[in-house]
Amino acid sequence: MGNLYYENHAGTFLVSHRKALSHHMPVSHFHSTYEIYILMSGKREFFIQDRTITINEGDVVIIAPNILHRTTNAERPKHERLIINMHEQYFSLDGSHRGALQPMLERDYLILKDSLRNRQLIETQSRAIIQEMQERGSGFELFAQTLAVQLLIKCCRQFRQHDAEPLASPSPMHERISEIVRYINEHYMEELSLHLLADRFFISPYYLSRSFKEATGFAFVEYVNSVRIKEAKKQLESSSLKVNLIARKVGFGSVTHFGRVFKVVTGHSPLHYRRKGE
Length: 278
What we know:
By secondary structure, the protein is α+β, with helices and mostly antiparallel strands. β4 and β5 (51-56) form a beta hairpin. It is 47% helix and 20% strand. The strands form two sheets. The chain has a six-stranded antiparallel sheet, covered by helices on one side. Strands 5-4-7 form a three-stranded antiparallel sheet. It is globular and about 55 Å long.
């Protein structure tokens, strides 16, 4: 129905605008940049970190680096959204952004629920970014980055003015799955099979498998692998541990299997991130 996609060579700035009748994110999703997700129309289910949240037209979600997330269809799958991914290096040269963006920098994610005044501000800024990326005039990337930083500042001002509302789960089933997700996030280095978790939480494996997919958008094994690979990527970038030791530390019994899953989840081999960290 309408698409715009731009990513710079370094992978540190990305803008994606889409109007779609329906969409499920096909792969696990985490990255080293901040993500601004603006739902311009429609309704979406948004899984972030350990819970599923329903977002509506006018809502903004800001996600910190390396936080696992995925969007799926709600009852109205037709939607329009703008996504901006930015590395923190673009926020300011001297660190002066830390005060202005504090609510965002100290949390894994922010959810800004719609208010009429806020929607008008966000809509205007979003359309300006889309126009800049479509026209691609001289200095368009820098100009769009500046607009995106302004957008982040406006969102953080809005967040400060209104106490964050508690994020209710869509249903008791979602809350139950959130409890299981939190367990996985804390025990990813241990053996985690569908049957073991079903026994631990006193539910059937079939119910866990079906409900997990419905609530998070992930198949059970896919989510466990994604959490493990996310942790492995952090260790590859921040330590000098050998790959086989990292594989074992995050819960993989076989380094060959680890390498295969790592490539599926990230699109790269483990050594790609080791080289980036050196």
